């Protein structure tokens, strides 16, 4: 029995104990009994819980205080949550003897980094010096490009664009750069890459080659020491060395030509220091065509794949950038022309210049016909270079034996690619998907619309043209589109140990009769030979 | 993502490079409230855009009082005139998974089924229908597949009432930064599949009002989500690697979250090779 105390009018037990009162009387009974009932109820509410040390009376008081302070909407629907919250907040204060570590969210560090971008170049004297220098590097107007791409719904949000703008300005101040362009953004699993396409000033490229030469010399010295150790070991018994000679390595293109025409700088976020990507080798491009891997966002991450990629993620990134540039960088036809007209037919043409007599066709024409756009980057051949090189030419430096072997081997066919300023209407589609999709940015206001080109082979590559302005950009994961699923290359067939010949092929052992017959035949031959020699000896 | 928060949301999702042009944004702001009025939806979400070869489909979803009920889907070619799509049936889903290649951009385009699935073609021919699949059907089936595989919400954003209906949790204040980096703090907003397979110990810790959906932890293949903190932790962006183009954003400690799809509408079946 619970023992509530005297029952109140609204309670079900009311009036049953005292026959004088009936449940239908409205008259409030003796006020003393009512006060007693209230005190009992309050005492019950103030009973402390054995588990948590809270009591219901204080808890309700806190809840009501919180509700009246905050006045949320539809309180009755969220009352349980409010109650839970109040309990939790109580609990923490009582149990907490340790103070929380002062948590510095990474937001503030990032904000500091972005703020550092906004530093203005200082000093009036420095500005005068800059003007005197020839060939001031051109900072691209990233915001203007972003505006045009935004008309098509492509691009990053304006804040990020501006940070990239400032980061490019820093890059130009730090590195000796002639021209600079925002190439695009490649997404990765953990972090993304922001890529700038840059042409260094002419003197600087030679410096780089010299530096690379020094590095190779350093490695050569180490190799000599290693060889001495090997010779000592060679005097001990060693297993037979393999006679496998790998096919000659195709040399990479010189800096400033072909696939290495531009130098690329990357960073993970605007505000981070720019990192230069190494030049790309044909072997890397050939391998990159066979694999399909996500970028993680760290340049030193290994690329685990089959066929094994010769390099780490920085090289893979550079190879993909080279492929995307070669496949999707376009400009309105006629914007660029060859320096000499003779060079048009020569596939070695690598240089082009702006055509001063270029008349931009109207936007409607640029959208309708793909012949109004042309590639201005040379396509990459199967070999992995833009200009074909015969690998067997290198064998002149090696031994003569090797030269003979290679001449007997296959003669590689000279590869020809499309010449430099080909129209994109000649790009092949995949099955029934055209290589490019062109559209105008808006149908409603044709006067100010911009012609937009989307690549279907490299999803994420876009180009726009509006009057004399045009630009290419890439936003995506960095992979080519293929209608079929990606099939990795199969491992090569198992190497034959040695060619089968008569010396090692199994034959049935000769039977006894065959052996005796053979022996008899041998003795006859021997006897004949002796007679013949005796005859000769008699002649002398 | 909600219509009202569309501009801010698009700015947060723009890290992937694709978004909406100002014309489309303005058109959405004008047409989606009208859709809400005409179809009497409680909420209208802009789902995203599927790029076809010759045009793009802009998709919106309408929700009723129970947020977990099957949603109505509408598509438009210009963000102004919206057409309701018939809900996807199981057969449509099965067929759509087998259709390969890009969307054409023309809703009445026919995919010939004889190439894709001879059995289905035979069945349709027997019942005197043409053995074709319309692009509209493929569209709605693709949207359903993407929603099932990659439509996600933060934990605690939705509550299940004792009657079974699902509502937004008005008491949801956002995930704290530490929780926002974990995959287990995000749920698929579809019928749960893995919940029953949890051990009793795990189930004891769950709160049935908020933990009634599948979390992302056990998605197959593992690693099919990429979590990034942009701007130093101001925004958490999750990108699906199985359906390239689906981006989910959430600003920790606030109520802002949403997902949108900008892509070609094709599943990335090469994912196991690419990880």
Please, could you describe this protein's structure?
The complex is a heterodimer of chains A (about 550) and B (about 280). Chain A is of the alpha+beta class and about 550 residues long. Chain A is built from 13 helices and 12 strands. Chain A has a domain of about 290 residues. Chain A has an 8-stranded mixed beta sheet with strand order 4-3-2-1-12-11-10-9, sandwiched between helices. Chain A has a two-stranded antiparallel sheet with strand order 5-8. The longest helix of chain A is centred in the middle third of the chain and has 33 residues. Chain A is flat. Chain B is of the alpha+beta class and about 280 residues long. Chain B has a domain of about 100 residues. Chain B has 9 helices and 14 strands. Chain B starts with 5 loop residues before the first helix and ends with a helix. The model of chain B has no long low-confidence stretch (mean pLDDT about 85). At the A-B interface, α4 and α7 of A face α1, α2 and β11 of B.
């Amino acid at each position: 029995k619970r023992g509530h105390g005297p029952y109140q009018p609204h309670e079900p037990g009311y009036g049953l104990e005292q026959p004088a009162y009936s449940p239908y009387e409205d008259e409030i009974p003796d006020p003393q009994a009512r006060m007693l009932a209230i005190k009992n109820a309050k005492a019950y509410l103030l009973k402390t819980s054995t588990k948590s040390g809270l009591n219901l009376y204080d808890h309700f008081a806190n809840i009501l205080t919180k509700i009246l302070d905050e006045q949320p909407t539809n309180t009755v629907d969220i009352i349980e949550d409010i109650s839970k919250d109040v309990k939790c907040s109580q609990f923490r204060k009582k149990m907490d003897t340790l103070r929380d570590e002062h948590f510095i969210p990474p937001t503030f560090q990032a904000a500091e980094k972005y703020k550092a971008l906004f530093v203005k170049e200082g000093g009036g004297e420095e500005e005068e010096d800059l003007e005197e220098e020839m060939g001031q590097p051109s900072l691209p107007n990233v915001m203007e490009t972003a505006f045009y791409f935004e008309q098509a719904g492509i691009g990053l949000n304006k804040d990020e664009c501006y940070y990239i703008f400032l980061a490019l300005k820093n890059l130009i101040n730090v590195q000796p750069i002639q021209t600079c362009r925002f190439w695009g953004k490649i997404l990765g699993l953990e972090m993304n890459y922001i890529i700038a396409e840059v042409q260094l000033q002419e003197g600087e490229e030679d410096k780089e080659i010299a530096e690379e030469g020094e590095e190779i010399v350093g490695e050569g010295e180490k190799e000599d020491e290693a060889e001495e150790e090997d010779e000592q070991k060679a005097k001990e018994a060693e297993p037979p060395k393999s006679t496998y000679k790998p096919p000659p390595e195709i040399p990479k293109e010189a800096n400033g030509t072909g696939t290495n025409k531009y130098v690329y700088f990357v960073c993970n976020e605007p505000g981070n220091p720019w990192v230069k990507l190494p030049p790309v080798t044909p072997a890397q491009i050939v391998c990159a065509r066979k694999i399909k891997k996500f970028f993680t966002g760290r340049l030193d991450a290994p690329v685990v794949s089959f066929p094994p990629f010769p390099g780490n993620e920085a090289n893979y990134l550079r190879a993909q950038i080279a492929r995307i540039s070669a496949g999707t960088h376009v400009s309105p036809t006629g914007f660029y022309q060859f320096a000499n007209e003779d060079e048009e037919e020569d596939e070695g043409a690598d240089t082009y210049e702006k055509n001063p007599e270029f008349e931009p066709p109207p936007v409607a024409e640029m959208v309708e016909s793909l012949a109004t756009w042309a590639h201005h980057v040379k396509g990459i051949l199967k070999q992995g270079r833009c200009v074909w090189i015969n690998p067997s030419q290198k064998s002149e430096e090696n031994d003569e034996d090797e030269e003979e072997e290679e001449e007997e081997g296959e003669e590689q066919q000279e590869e020809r690619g499309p010449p430099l300023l080909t129209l994109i209407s000649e790009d092949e589609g995949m099955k029934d998907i055209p290589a490019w999709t062109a559209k105008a940015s808006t149908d409603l206001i044709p006067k100010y619309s911009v012609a937009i080109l989307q690549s279907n082979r490299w999803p994420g590559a876009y180009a726009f043209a509006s009057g004399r302005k045009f630009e290419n950009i890439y936003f995506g994961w960095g992979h080519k589109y293929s209608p079929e699923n990606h099939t990795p290359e199969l491992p090569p067939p198992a190497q034959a140990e040695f060619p089968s010949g008569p010396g090692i092929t199994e034959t049935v052992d000769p039977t006894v009769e065959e052996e005796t017959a053979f022996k008899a035949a041998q003795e006859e031959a021997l006897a004949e030979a002796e007679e013949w020699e005796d005859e000769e000896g008699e002649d002398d | 993502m909600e219509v009202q928060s569309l501009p801010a949301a698009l700015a947060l999702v723009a890290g992937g490079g694709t978004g909406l042009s100002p014309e489309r944004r303005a058109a959405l702001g004008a047409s989606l409230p009208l859709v809400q009025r005409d179809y009497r939806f409680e909420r209208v979400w802009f789902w995203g855009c599927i790029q076809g070869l010759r045009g793009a489909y802009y998709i919106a979803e309408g929700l009723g009082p129970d947020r977990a009920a099957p949603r109505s889907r509408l598509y438009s070619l210009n963000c102004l005139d919206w057409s309701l799509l018939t809900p996807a049936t199981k057969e449509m889903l099965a067929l759509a998974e087998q259709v390969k290649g890009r969307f054409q951009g023309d809703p009445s385009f026919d995919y010939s089924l004889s190439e894709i699935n001879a059995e289905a073609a035979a069945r349709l021919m027997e019942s005197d229908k043409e053995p074709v699949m319309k692009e509209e059907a493929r569209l709605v089936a693709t949207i359903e597949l993407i929603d099932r595989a990659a439509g996600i919400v933060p934990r605690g954003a939705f509550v299940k009432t004792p009657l079974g209906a699902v509502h937004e949790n008005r008491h949801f204040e956002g995930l704290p930064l530490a929780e926002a980096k974990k995959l287990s703090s995000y749920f698929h907003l579809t019928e749960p599949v893995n919940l029953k397979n949890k051990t009793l110990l795990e189930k004891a810790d769950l709160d049935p009002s908020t933990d009634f959906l599948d979390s992302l932890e056990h998605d197959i293949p593992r690693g099919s989500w990429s979590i990034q903190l942009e701007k130093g932790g101001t925004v958490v962006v999750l990108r699906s690697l199985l359906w390239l183009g689906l981006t989910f954003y959430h600003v920790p400690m606030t109520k802002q979250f949403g997902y949108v799809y900008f892509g070609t509408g094709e599943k990335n079946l090469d994912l196991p090779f690419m990880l």
